[in-house]
Amino acid sequence: MRSILFVPADSEKKLSKAAGTPADALVLDLEDAVLPDRKPQARLMMREYLGALSDRSRMWVRVNDLTSGEILRDLAQTVPARPAGILLPKIRGPEDVAVVGHYLDALESEHGLEPGQIRVMAIVTETPAAMLRMGEIAKQAHPRISHVAWGGEDLSSALGAGDPRTPEGAWRPMYEYARNQCLLLGHAMSVEVMDTVYVNFKDPEGLKKSCAQSRYDGFTGRIAIHPDQCAAINEAFTPSAEERAMAQRIIDAFQSGAGAVSIDGKMYDIPHLKAARRLLAS
Ligand code: COA
Ligand code: MG
User: Fold this and answer.
1) What single string gives the DSSP state of each residue in 16-68?
2) Which residue's C-alpha comes closest to atom 13 of ligand 1?
């Protein structure tokens, strides 16, 4: 998954616009893009929207967190709508995923879904507690987790801190740390790792640069908040023809049977071979 577009589930207009975007996946939001008194309406609209689709393989739903008092109602409406997965925000540690995993087990059984069918994209940096427990989340590697993602805004709010970005737009050290923790966690678990939102949706040049950096750093995709961001994200996370050709050259060079080879005066060894194989498989 290269791009996943957030769509507030209580917005008729945005729901109707969403289908026409090039996003690889959509996430209908029941959480922070929906005001508390609109949540029942958002759940109904999510259910109706998903119910009208024959293919829900690119559909996700963000539910409210475990302390919200909303999550059981969210899951009770979401599971029968059969999305590919849920985004689970503000986790505090591996137990939160385990508890939600049990809720999903029960609801999948009740509604005749395959056990384990609904996947989880865990948002892993939104609470200080989770930030201290990355190793445990990796070690317990809940089998439903197919993606991890990170966000800075809720962490800064939990810390009573200010804007997570500098006036120049760079992440302040705490959020750079959170971003790196998420990257390490995703790769330690061998799941997809999604970079957080680029909030200036009217800055296509900035988005492009930022996405190139995300991919370079090891993210496998990125969250979008506006339809205009999806094509740029997809492009940034699609290996170019040149990159594919170079990866093929590296693989071909290793046909010689050597563990280290030279191409155009540069040394390539096994990590390069692995990276080339991964790139061609993506
Ligand atoms: N999904 C689907 N459609 C969207 C959309 C989205 N996320 N964001 C904007 N659109 C639609 C608008 O409804 C508008 O449709 P129209 O052409 O039929 O009028 C069109 O795209 C252009 O939108 P624009 O006027 O540029 O933006 P806006 O002011 O309507 O909305 C935001 C700006 C940021 C409020 C909006 O993009 C949004 O709600 N994003 C998602 C926020 C979210 O879910 N946050 C939680 C996760 S971080
Ligand atoms: Mg949030």
Assistant:
1) HHHTTS--SEEEEE-STTS-GGGHHHHHHHHHHHHHT-S--TTEEEEPPPTTS
2) 14
CA of 187 to the centre of ligand 2 (A): 23
Q: Whose CA is nearest to atom 21 of ligand 1?
A: 227
Is the pTM higher than 0.70? The answer reads: yes
pLDDT tens for each residue of 168-202: 999 999 999 999 999 999 999 999 999 999 999 99
Spacing, Cα 278 to ligand 2 middle (Å): 32
pLDDT (tens digit, 9 = 90+) per residue, 233-267? 999 999 999 999 999 999 999 998 888 999 999 99
SS3 assignment, position 44: helix
All residues with CB under 5 Å from ion ligand 2: 32, 154
